[in-house]
Fold:
Amino acid sequence: MKPGTRNAIVAFTALGTILPAPIASFAADESGETIMLEEIVVTSRRRAENLQSVPDSVTAFGAQTIERAGIDDVQDFVDLTPNITMRETFRAGVTFITIRGITTGQQGWAPVTYVVDGVQAGSLDAINQGALTDIERIEVLKGPQGALYGAGAIAGAINIVTKKPTNEMEYKAQASYGSGNDIKLSGVVSGPIVEDRVLFRLGAYYRNTDGVIESTDGDGLDYEEQISLKGRLLFDFDNLTLDVRGAYSDVTAGAAAQEVVGSASLIDDFNTPGPARGVRGEENREFKEFSAKLDWDTGVGTFTSVTGYSDIEQDLFGSASWQKGPGVGLFGPFGGDADAFNDFFQDLADNFETFTQDVRFTSNADQPVRWLVGLSYMDRKVENLLSVGGLLQGLEKVEADMVRLLYRPDVRNDEIWGGYGQVSVDVTDKLELTGALRYDTNSYDTTQYTDLTYSTPVPTPDGIVTQTAKNSRWQPKVQLSYDWSDDVMTYITYAEGFRFGFFNTGNLTAPENTKNFELGFKTTLADGRVRMNGALFHIDYSDQQFTSVIGEAPFRLTTNVPEANINGGELEISALLTEELEFSGGLGITDAKIKGGQRSAGTPDYSVNLSLTYTRELGNGWDLISRADYRRQGTMVLWDGAGGVFEVGEKDFVNVRLKVRNDNWFVGVFADNLTNEQQANDFGFVGFGYLRANSMPRVLGIEAGFSF
Structure:
């Protein structure tokens, strides 16, 4: 074990041992009244339950924590969760999420099932859509959740719950200004159309930023302009509720902002000139979403139907040399007087149209045998364009100046059916047995075409026009949990995870599966002022999907690693040190190795999260609220398609926020990545150098808002 990992374990274990003792002696505030942590209710098992009674490793963020920590995108809450990382590379849709050593395959399925208000995201691109606004609760489930959430939840699930329409008129608005001329505006209005029966909620979000990752010419490469609108109608007719949602987003943002460095030894050296650019990358993303959720309380149980539709249109144009001419790129020299091209370009499209349907029947919770059964369906169409070439003159996307050296449009289709069920039995008043089982099957295909009219298919070398595949698998889960007292519960779990295979630019990648063993505990201490939860896990991993960027067509290499083993653990603590001071912390340890001993890619060997929130009354209804978040991330390795293995060193990240507020108004300041720590999110050899995707530098800002 490395010294950094060992020291993190020792320090956090010592903290977990000594923390409850002083808290127990301060079980009441100055008035003598007992204070305790707020109860957290989650719906991770498709029914409302206290977090401490769920025999799974779940990190939950309530509305108050979301506000105080400044969580407004996926990266924010991932960075507050042990044993999970997220690395954005060359565009927003290609986001590498890793949970417990299980990561992302480009063009494939995410390692988690991402659910918003009961609607499952149909692709990895649907996860990192930009702003998270008007959120009530975020639940991060670690470990395979396929028995309830379906194939793809091989590493876990993320459950997002937005705020519901209100029966009284409500108005909210918020604005912030940060580094890179980053302007964010958001607003919400909610209330009744017909009191107690028909309620509405409308939200809007706008962002405009020049970006903070600058080229050698001083241009922001991560610029963005985003407009998002969403609406929700809630119909309540006694035993029947209908929840209808719609959303639209239009995003224009910088993309392909990687930097070329000359040596692998520079992976952790950020005293380099920075990314040079001739072609400045740009991505256009348009999201349209609609869903309808019906809940019918029959008395015996609740029938639920969730229908979802999403349409994602994305195109990207950027540099394929990642340099400013004259230079050498993927296709030779460029930019000189005698050279054919001013620069090389990449022109991409990634479009997803998805329909989902889930129906289930859930028994009442107040009975010794609790159960649910359900069916799910997904139909997905994906259109991809991979095109690279050279610009004869200028550095803009002008078709007359573009010579396409590679042009590969293709269409993929997935049709997925699933059936699932779960039963929880109170064997005694202390012992609960839970069993769950799901069967998923996916029939999928891919066809390549000569152009974007999709009128002329291109046969493979063996004459096949459309390549097809089918994957099916049972996903069982068995749990035993035992309540030693009202405040102490332990559990043991066996579960199998599964993720479908996929076609990557015509190449078939095999499905993968895992066998998981977990032993965990959940405790509430010091009269409700401390929560301490932990788990140990072992994973047998077969046919792990791995994607890397290579320096030749099709520039994406996806392979399967036959065998890997993952061992690790998690410990999380929340505590009210005083009525004004709240502490939370998490430790995650992951030892992920493929057969033969090589470390798995993209998996830090440990992570430590520490947070302190201090609240103080200022008088006249005003409060001072301050919060500091610290994350220490252990070393990880990154692989490339040329066989290179590169180590990213330990990193320390600090965010701080300070605000004053009353019941209606607030104003504050914030610093994200206060110490300006940077890391390589991706790294690999591309023939003429090493390509590095850089993380976000320090961002400072101010914010203000009101609610009535």
Observations:
- The chain has one domain: 3-707.
- Residues 252 and 284 are 5 Å apart (CA to CA).
- Confidence is low (pLDDT under 50) at residues 7-28.
